[in-house]
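Readers of this paper often ask what the protein records in our data store actually look like. Such a record has a labelled line for the sequence and another for the backbone structure tokens. Nothing more is needed to write down the fold, since each code stands for a local backbone conformation. The record that follows is passed on verbatim for readers who wish to inspect the format.
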Amino acid sequence: MRRVSRQTGRVSDGSDTWVLHVDLDQFIAAVEVLRRPELAGRPVIVGGRGDPTERAVVSTASYEAREYGVGSGMPLRLAARKAPDAVILPVDAEAYTAASVAVMSTLRAQPGATVQVLGWDEAFIGVRTDDPEAYARQVQRAVLDRTSLHCSIGIGDTLVRAKVATGFAKPRGVFRLTADNWLEVMGDRPTIGLWGVGSKISRRLAEHGVVTVAQLATADPSELVAEFGPKMGPWYQTLGRGEGARVVDDSPWVARGHSRETTYQQNLTEPAQIEEAVRELAVQVLEDVAAEGRPVIGLTLKVRYAPFITKTYQRKIPETSDRDDVVERILGLLHDRLERGRPVRLLGVRAEMPMPDDAREGHTPTRGGW
């Protein structure tokens, strides 16, 4: 049966294929409010052990707390000053994992759904339907009925457009972004509004006169290649056009690497202290890597100097499964790059592994991670 879309006027033979991006609203805070209904409507901050006198960062903040300027990644002490009446709770990863499992199983139970999980609180759904808005509302009802959690859903003809659309859907809404309205909606917005473009990349783009999404979409490809390289330059322009993958892939996610980090309640000031702390983190990371059965091909050292200046140092290494060799190489990176005499408040170690041949093709742009 031939149908004419109300939104685009296009003729379709049956159902079209759509990408839905499901994002749970203030997920961690919402889980906490479900456990403590008396917190509904109050500013809630979740982070560390729930003690703002300790060094920790905000994992999430309720919408009420965000009105005070509190955001994820902010030092918990600063968040407490911004929202003095907020309820501050410790992180309970087991509770969030259980809630996430319930949500993802609900998504997989939807008719015709192919589900690609992105994390605790978000996933893509690939589905064939002639009414993606109605399908999205059905998903929202199913998640709410099963878990009592609300979600927002972006609809797109690519993964990028669906992901970006969710920002316009929050909270509890549905929004569609396609090739037909991409530049109308996004064209005048700054490039940092794109999924996969953070503050550093947006600043580098601005140095070339590329400030808006429309300017990125029509930028000189040779300038982008010169600035970002032959792979990333064209990729950023693809993001500016909202293009990219159109098929949701439900194959198992495979980690590119493992990382561990620790915030120290007292600054580390002695070189021997810092070296021992990095060694401990490296041993923990290598235990995670060993479970993967893949060698290490790259290392990253993350250092947060006091008061709150974070730097990351990377190094590719010859492929190896020798744990002692990896530890010595990360310590070598530390000795080469550590800024001597500066107190350290956080350290992190990451080991990168080669991807198996049958891993999901391509990669997903994110702002997080290091």
